[in-house]
Amino acid sequence: MSAVRLVPALIVALILLFLALPIVVVFVLSFSSAAYLTFPPPAFSFRWYKAYFGDSDWLDATWLSLWVATAVVALSTTLGTLAAIGIVRLPRPIRILTTALVLSPLVVPGIVIAIGVYYAFSRYGLVGSPMGIVLAHTCLAVPFVVTSVSASLAGIDPKLEHAALSLGATPGATLWQVTLPLIRPGVLVGALFAFITSFDEVIIALFLSGSGAVTLPRRMWDDLRFQLNPTIAAVSTLTIILTALLLAIAHLIRRRTEQLKNEKGEA
User: Fold this and answer.
1) pTM listed for this prediction
2) By the 8 A CB rule, do 250 and 190 touch?
3) With 0-12 CB in 10 A as exposed, 13-18 as middle and 19+ as buried, what is 211?
4) Which residue, among 201, 194, 200, has the nearest Cα to 111 in the 3D structure?
């Protein structure tokens, strides 16, 4: 390998190492046998993983986060898919404005959204309720679904839908039997990102969880503030692994979709 190629590759490798180093440190600390966070650990043990799985508070927070994320996936995938299908059919000026409004939660600071949601939900008794967190997380997750589904819709020939309608299919049947099967990869990828967005979100959870709906990120935040021990490293490692697996699945879905498109193009 020539020096012209070696230098950029070395720079990229150093950047990736810099980004991955904190994750590696957390991973190593999760297997520490010490009673406090120290690096390098004096010995390796599964002590803190056992502490996590044996603590009802940690498990309750985990199950609540999984339930909330699952509900957010159902709501945001439905709303985001319908929104993307509707937006793509709008006139260009209105489509641009509507897309900007739908994607605004991605650019507005999370603390601003959290404050606004808190004041809005407090009037209806949703603070401290799992349903309040579900609704707030859905607002954050819908833009990811809209973006993913819109990308899939961009690769669909509108003539397929027009052909189904001309043959007597109703709009609902066309949506269910033609459009949705074609955009299924985009819907699945959007659903995965919606799950990750909800499962890892902490800012809104700090405002809305109260004492009756403590999610896993909120529980991790409290542990960092009041009783810092290697259990937090074990929980963080499990969360990182789950997120990495979901991102890998999303990548495989996208890659498989591109392969199928290339195969159809060659055919």
Assistant:
1) 0.82
2) no
3) exposed
4) 201
